[in-house]
Please model this.
Amino acid sequence: MQTLSKNLHMVPRKRFDHIVIDEVHKAGADSYRAIIDYFTPGFSLGLTATPERTDGFNIYDLFDYNVSYEIRLGEALKQKMLVPLHYYGIADTGRVEDVVDTLHTYGRVDDVHGLIFTSSVEEFHALAEEPTRRGIRAVALAGADAPACREAVVGQLEQGEIDYIITVDIFNEGIGHPLCQPNRAHA
Model:
């Protein structure tokens, strides 16, 4: 979106008959607005899992309040369209110990794979090595890591060489990996 929004002059305004905007909840950003306002397609489709915004931006207005399909999280989980999410919030100073203890308590010894999301780079560094030190097969992966490194770590997860990826600043939005698909997931 960033590149296109800066180079709109290179693409004719009427170039596309249809435009599909994934993650349309970001459409309030200047880069998205520039693209949406520039093109004049016959049909536009916006996709998002989070239409309600706290920043005051009205996604519905972009599409004249025309919602072609809506399914809420509970119903999508019930229909097995999504992999169930197990979220464990930890709010005290013993976060690292609590995370590792949670893995031991709720983890299984069979073929389970998971993503552990951290809320900050500081927390990421604090947690990165502790699971491995405690016998849990995990690798830390950050947004700053090169794409080749990310692919290698995901490959380790796929091959069963590790069980968890500890992450910060990646996989935050929809992840289309086969291990995370409800009909293909091992977890």
Q: What stands out?
A: DSSP finds eight helices and five strands in the chain.
